[in-house]
Amino acid sequence: MENLNIIIIGVGGQGSLLASKVLGNLGLELGREVKVSEVHGMSQRGGSVVTYVRIGENISSPLIENGEADLVLAFEQLEAARALPFLKKDGLMIVNTQKILPMPVINGTATYPVDIEEQLTARSGKLLMIDALKIAKEAGNQKCVNIAMLGVVAKQLDISIEIWKAVLKKTIPGKLLEVNLKAFTLGFTQ
């Protein structure tokens, strides 16, 4: 695996931080250098959470500049649109189809954009739109959206699924492991 720059973006409570921890542990399991940085913007009130994960050799900074992300993993559509500037020209964007209305939309001072998928298609090298909420519910817990999305990521990367599952077992607490492994496997089969 070459150097890999990943942006994870979502809304507070969607599990962006756990996803970044899994990816960081994956990089360590592969014997690579890992840098992770998190940006919390009112995450406890449904605001954006952005995580940078860099895996590779000679990684000096945890931050990813515009146009440098190989992969953007977005847990919500509007957040995906916000992350577009980070994506490389030929980069991969994996987006959960879920829409979580921000407060300005809820209180009527703004409207949720209707053309997000078209924007993403026009500006992504490769776009995968996934109903990760449906997958998580099928696995048995709607809070597993993040791990279902990682299953989709795993299918795109040339890393053994056994390594992924070993990392999940090391990272996720025992009582939540089974449902998360199921969500991961269902995501991988998409």
Explained architecture:
- The chain is α/β, with parallel strands linked by helices and 190 residues long.
- The protein has a domain at 4-134: Pyruvate-ferredoxin Oxidoreductase, domain 3 (3-Layer(aba) Sandwich).
- It is 42% helix and 24% strand.
- It has eight helices and six strands, in the order βαβββαβααβαααα.
- The protein has helices at 16-29, 77-83, 103-106, 116-123, 132-139, 145-156, 161-171, 174-188, and strands spanning 4-11, 33-40, 48-56, 69-74, 87-96, 126-130.
- The mean pLDDT is 91.
In brief, what are we looking at here?
The chain is of the alpha/beta class and 190 residues long.
Topology:
Blueprint (H helix, E strand, L loop, with lengths): L3 E8 L4 H14 L3 E8 L7 E9 L12 E6 L2 H7 L3 E10 L6 H4 L9 H8 L2 E5 L1 H8 L5 H12 L4 H11 L2 H15 L2
Parallel strand pairs: 1-4, 4-5, 5-6
Antiparallel strand pairs: 1-3, 2-3
Helix pairs in contact: 1-7, 2-4, 5-6, 5-8, 6-8
